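Dear H.,

Thanks for agreeing to be a second pair of eyes. The structure we're designing against is below in token form, covering all 129 positions.
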């Protein structure tokens, strides 16, 4: 575990844990040990493009989009709650060239990552139950 934080005002305990290939039984184990608590989680597996959460209301994990880019050789990534904010940010970092899903697709046409080409990846968190 990386860190543990207790928010005394809300009674929320926050911590990080690492698991391979997304969440497995970690939340079920905690619920088994503490049946009166609800475990909210978010998992990211960048190599497999798996981004998911069980926080359907966005109460603890508000972000719903992860954007990974390389523009003019500069790598940047950012999290967003709203899709509209994704395109506002892309518009800014591409100097007004990309501001829609279609323009992202056009930008990525013919991209060869093995050649170090510029790219834009928009990954949406899947809400699972």
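And this is the sequence the design step returned. I haven't edited it by hand at all.
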């Amino acid at each position: 575990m990386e860190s543990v934080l207790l928010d005394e005002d809300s009674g929320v305990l926050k911590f990080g844990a690492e698991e391979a290939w997304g969440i497995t039984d970690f939340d079920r184990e905690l619920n088994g040990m503490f049946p009166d608590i609800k475990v909210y989680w978010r998992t990211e597996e960048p190599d497999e493009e798996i981004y998911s959460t069980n926080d359907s209301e966005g109460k603890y994990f508000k972000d719903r989009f992860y954007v990974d880019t390389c523009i003019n050789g500069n790598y940047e990534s950012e999290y967003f709650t709203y899709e509209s904010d994704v395109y506002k940010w892309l518009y800014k970092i591409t100097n007004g060239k990309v501001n829609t899903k279609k323009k992202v697709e056009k930008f990525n046409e013919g991209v060869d990552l093995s050649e170090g080409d510029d790219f834009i990846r928009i990954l949406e968190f899947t809400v699972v139950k």
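Two observations from my side: The chain has two domains: 4-53, 65-127. The mean pLDDT is 86.

Warmly,
E.
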